[in-house]
Amino acid sequence: MRTWMRTKQGEDEAVQLAREKEESEGNALSIKKCISVLNTLEVTKEEKAKSFKLFKDPDNRQIFLSACDDDPEVALLWLRSEIA
């Protein structure tokens, strides 16, 4: 029983640490930040609305924000290809 309790406690702590890490990283890759950056680009309202669904995925947010930092035109091309 004690071994199970220690294992369960360790798993709970690992999950909590993972959540905290995700939250701290998530602030830099938040949907709100993506929308803020998106507002600086020339997109239609339709493209903007479709982008919201795309931004639900953390990998897509990271790609979009990283690409915008590097080359906003390429980021826009990528975004358009993903929402097409």
TrEMBL record:
UniProt source species: Setaria viridis
Highest taxon of source: Eukaryota
Region (Disordered): 1-20
Protein name: Uncharacterized protein
